Amino acid sequence: MDGRSSCVSKAALKRLAQKMASDTERGAVRTRRSDRHKPAKPAARPVQRGASATAGIYRDLRDDIVSLRRRPGEPIIENQIAQTYGVSRTPVREAMLKLADEGLIEVFPQSGTFVSRIPLAALPEAIAIRMALEEATVRLAAERATRSQVARLRVCLEVQREREAAGDHEGFHQSDEEFHALLAEIAGYPGFWTVVQQVKVQVDRYRRLTLPVRGRMGLVIEEHEAVLDAIADHDPKRAVQALVAHLNDLQVTIAEAQKANPLYFTDRKTN
Fold first, then answer.
1. Which of 53, 183, 184, 192 is deepest in the core (most CB within 10 A)?
2. Residues 42-69: pLDDT tens digits?
């Protein structure tokens, strides 16, 4: 190949390279323009650590208060709780606001935050609401209970006897809850027990004070057994009578609990 041919080839190659670069740029411009019409990708959402922290702190504090692991009148220190959970004070405050709405804590701006005392005036109303709902529950349970469901109730009673023998007050309370929840399930209205649980939160605190009293757990078992026997016999009237006796006994022992633990109660209905 001579020198002239070589020069022509180089010039041609140069023009080709320039054309390719120009085409590439035009393609890029078209791509950018078309991208304007594409929907934008959603931004990644941050993990809801604050919300989950608030829920966890609320749940744990509520359990501690209702079970009396945190006693009425005991101070609650925000900084300590925040350090325990490794969070800021914001989720702690949010949890405390929910607990204050339920009447489980009291906030005094100049003094601090404390576990609320049990409001004596609120207990009779809560027990009356519970009785109205559970009367309907046991009546229906007595009409509808199957043999296998009656057997499940008997298992609950056996668990209560075991926990009484072990002196396990908290375990006894939980097995008591399971017994009543099962009554609502047998009746066909498990939501009744959900409503009762919301109403009786202050009653549960007071009941924890009665369980260590000698003979108290045994008496509860006897009362449960009377309810169970009536349901097993498909006798709605007797089942209601047994339940009323059971819950009336709860009303009678309020004065005894107050006398034994005067600093845990208040005469105010709400805090």
1. 183
2. 333 233 455 688 999 999 999 999 999 9
Q: What pLDDT is attached to residue 246?
A: 95
Report the percentage of the chain scoring pLDDT > 70: 80
Per-residue model confidence (pLDDT) at position 267: 87
Q: What H or E segment, with its residue span, contains residue 118?
A: strand 118-119
The pLDDT-based confidence of 3 (bands split at 50, 70, 90) is: very low
What are the structural domains of the chain?
Answer: 49-116 (1.10.10.10), 120-266 (1.20.120.530)
CA distance 40 to 111: 52
Q: How far apart are CA 63 and CA 86, in angstroms?
A: 20
**199/64 Cα distance (integer angstroms):** 18
Alpha helices per DSSP H over the chain: 3-35, 49-66, 78-85, 89-101, 123-144, 147-166, 169-187, 190-199, 201-210, 216-232, 236-252, 254-260
Neighbours of 144 (CB within 10 A): 14
DSSP state of 42: P
- Per-residue pLDDT band at 269 (split at 50, 70, 90): low
Predicted confidence at residue 28, as pLDDT, reads 46
| Tokens of residue 27, six digits | 């393609």
Give the Å distances, CA to CA, from 164 to 204, 211, 215, 222: 18, 10, 9, 12
Rounded CA-CA distance 150/127 in Å is 25
